[in-house]
Amino acid sequence: MRNPARRARATALALGLLVPLALSGCAGDDGDAAGTPGAGESSAPAEVESGPVTVQDDTGAEITLEQPAQRVACLTMICVDALTEVGITPVAYRDALSLDERYAGPDAEMREVTGGFGEENVEDVVLATPDLVIGLAGAQDGLRDAVERAAPLYLVDPRSWEDSVEFLRTLGDLTGTREEADQAADAFTARVEEAAGERSPLTTLSMFGEPGSLGVDSVETPVGSLLAEVSEYPWPAGDDPFASVAVEQIAEVDPDVVFAQAFSASDDDQPLSERLATDPTWAGMTAAREGRVVEVEADVWATGRGTISLGIVLDQVQAELAGS
Predict the structure, then answer these.
(1) Which intervals hold domain Fe/B12 periplasmic-binding (predicted)?
(2) What CA–CA distance (Å, rounded) separates 83 from 168?
(3) Which terminal Cβ of the chain has fewer Cβ within 10 Å, N or C?
C-alpha cells in the first residue's frame, strides 16, 4: 500500500472504525460453538466434484488440492462473498461484514481471525482446520509460510469486475461447485451487460477517506471498472489502482455524481460530504451544488469486491443515475 489514502483506508477498515453493522451475533470466543477447534462446519453441497484441483493464484503461485476444499478460511471479504454465491459457509473470517445477512449471516458458525490487517493471528486459522485459506495479494503475502503449515494459501487481487467474476469461477473449481459458480457469474455478467446498454452520459466518481487524505477507485479496481461500464468514469490508475487525490484534482474533472465512502483514523463518523462542505473548491463542484454526493456503505464498496457486493454497488449507482 504505497499511497497514504490507500493505507489509511485499509487501516480504518481493519480497525473497525466504520459505523458498526447492525448485527445480532458474533463469533470467536474460546469455548463457544464458533470458537472451538473444528467449529464452523461448511454448508457445502453434499455432492461435489472430486479429484485433484490445480490453479494459479494472482501472485503466480500454483495451488494444488488433492480434493476440492470443503473447509475454507477467508482472510478477505471477496472469499466470503464468493462462497456465499456457491452456498458454502467459511470456517473462519476476518471482516465483520461477513456476519451481515447478505453474506454468511449473523448466525453462521465461523471462527473469527484476529490480528491486524496483514498481520492476522495464524493460530486462529489453524484452529479452524481449513482445507484452503484465501487472502488478499499485496496485503497478506507475508503470511504464506505460516498459513501453509495448515493449508494452501490462495491470494487474490481483482483489478476489475471481470476479475471478480473470474475469481468466482475459480472458487467454484477449488470447492467442486463450478456449476453454481458459473450460474452466479453468468447472471452477474448479464446484469452488467444490460446496465452497460443503458450507459449514462453523467460523470461519476467513487471516492473514500477523509479531508486531507482522499482517494478514488480508479478504473483498475472492481468498483471503478464497474462504474466505467455504466457512466463516464475518467479516473485512470497511475501507479496505484487506489489513487490519492486532492479536492482540486476532483474539481478539475467536476463529476456530476459522487459516491462517497467515509472513514477516518479517528472516531469521527460524520458523512464525508459534510466534512468537506466548508471547502470552497468542493462546495463549488457540480455534485456538491446539486446535492448529488451519495454516501454509500463503505465496507461493501471498499472491501466486498465480489459479485454480491458489486451487485449492491450497481443497485445504488443505477438508482442514482435513474433520477437523471
Answers:
(1) 71-324
(2) 8
(3) C
In 3D, which of 11, 34, 13, 17 has the Cα closest to residue 124? Answer: 34
Q: Which among 272, 159, 118, 251 is positioned nearest to 208, based on CA atoms?
A: 272
Query: Among 84, 230, 95, 225, which Cα is nearest to 168's?
Result: 84
Distance CA 68, CA 178 (A): 11
Q: How many CB atoms lie within 10 A of CB 38?
A: 11
Q: Dump pLDDT digits (tens) for 65-122.
A: 999 999 999 999 999 999 999 999 999 999 999 999 999 999 999 999 999 999 999 9
Distance of CA 72 to the CA centre of its chain: 17
What is the enclosing helix (H) or strand (E) of 261? strand 257-262
Q: Is residue 128 very low, low, confident or very high in pLDDT (cuts 50, 70, 90)?
A: very high
List of long-range contacts for 98-101, beta carbons under 8 Å, 24+ apart: 98/74, 99/21, 99/23, 99/25, 99/26, 99/27, 100/21, 100/23
**8 strand-pairing partners:** none
Ordered by where they begin, the domains of the chain are 20-190 (3.40.50.1980), 204-321 (3.40.50.1980)
Query: Quick count: other Cβ atoms within 10 Å of Cβ 83?
Result: 27
Residues 191-225 pLDDT 10s? 999 999 999 999 999 999 888 889 999 999 999 99
- End-to-end CA distance of the chain: give it in Å, rounded: 36
Answer for the pair 228, 200: CB distance below 8 angstroms, yes or no. Answer: no
Over the range 109-128, which residues count as b (16 or more CB within 10 Å of their CB) and which as e?
bbbbbebebbebebebbbbb
Quote the CA–CA distance of 169 and 164 in Å, as a whole number: 9
* Nearest alpha carbon to residue 282 among 190, 201, 209: 209
pLDDT in tens, 15-24: 443 333 333 3
**More confident of the two residues 263 and 52:** 52
**Look-up of cell digits 470458537:** 35
